[in-house]
Amino acid sequence: MTLPSLPKELWDQIATYLTGRDVKRLRLACKSLSGIPLPLDRVFISANRIDINVFRYVANHDVFRHCVREIIWDEARFERDFRVDASSGLEWTDMGYTEDDPPDDFLTECRDNLDLVEARLAQYRLDLPFIAPLVKAMEEPLTMCESWWHNRQFLEEQRSVLAEDLDIKAFEYGLDRFPALKRITITPAAHGTLFAPLYKTPMIRTLPYGLNYSIPRGWPVSGESYLPADEWIEENKGKWRGFKEVIRCLAEGKAAGVKELVLDTHLLPTGVTCRFFDQPSLEYDHLVGLLQRPGFRRLNLALMAGQQEPSDWESFRNGRLRSALAEASELEHFHLNTDIGYQGTKDPGAHLALLHDIFPIERWPKLRHFGLTRFLVSQRDLVSFLSKLPASVRTIELNCLYFISADDSYRDLLENMHDSLDWKTRNAAGRPKVTIRLDLLDYGRIDSSEVGSRNLWLEEEVGRFLYDGGPNPFDQVFRDEVLPGHGGTLRDEFQPELVHPWVDHDTLVLMGIEKESPSGRIEVGE
Question: Which stretches make up the F-box domain (predicted)?
């Protein structure tokens, strides 16, 4: 039997394990394989005409539109951060306008992009799957003047889309055209890092090869300077344009099959301003209306807490967040991500509400996943909260947590969980799987230009300690750290192929992963 003569049902199943590119090649190989279905289960929308045109094409296709289960709204927008004139997109200098010379801020950001790429090229073997694309992109880089010209074109086209609300109109149209639609994801992280986008959207696929550009985010992102959380007022709402329009449309009853809303920052320190919950607003009512949908089952909420005084944190203490979440009585998956603690947050101390006063878990009897990322916690309060989670919970994430007390730590948290929770008495299928992700920047010994979006994952190590008598993976001295060789896996948020054990440099050299003497390698535990 030849391969093309295999039953269509078998080929359809095989295709589910292939990339979209490989499926397209198979369809072109011969007539008998041309009927293999394309893996077109999601579409993208953004403030770019290419994405909008492809979105509308799929929405109008009598076959493709029935396959779409997810809309991803790319909130990344090219901003006016480089002293450019609002109407022309040209830099203003003392000598007047100049079309060709990139401004210093743009050049600085592009150099930072290259620093990250070059550090990875210096650290890893160049034939590795996650490094080879970077090597190829660096072979024929565009000049900075060419990159600046493209940046201005992106911005100019974006302005015309936003002025006519073309993205919103397309989104509303698509909601009525995708009968299988279940999830809407909103992300500011689609562009990932240089040469490593999170999503290869139609627009990103058309970027000139070797283009180094200012990576757009759209939402405010905390960096070395910790940004304040903006008030939820009209002049600020446009920063979260996609979020605002999505909850409006869904609250109005469009796309009744949508039961999942995901705000995905991929660990970027950003989100919708937490002050969304400070006061009553039309958008708050829209969110509540969405959460009240029968069968609504998943909410990934990303909030930007920003720089607040210890007496503030009203957004978490006033009960409005809890009240909204309580409306989702059929919730199965909940995850809260914030920028709290990132690069020097102010400690809210006793003013931060207890977890049970924020999350109405008594209203979530069907909950199967609970996650916290970048949140300030009391170890005692967290363990008490975990003990009250419904027995239906199967997975828990406790990522990049910051402990209010200097006496608390991840090591002590795991010890307390092991001793206080009854999970180990349950049968194996009923025990929650606990995952911990650690931001390597928090170790304090790592240059951000070398690490970027890399983080340390602890999965099996936590389970072995909680349930099987294994060792605590966290160090006895550096109690929030896992030393190389003591467990964990290094991963990258924007390069899923970058996965290797958390071990020392010499071991990685023997494994054929790192170079003999990389200038950009990570040094931990010296």
Answer: 1-47
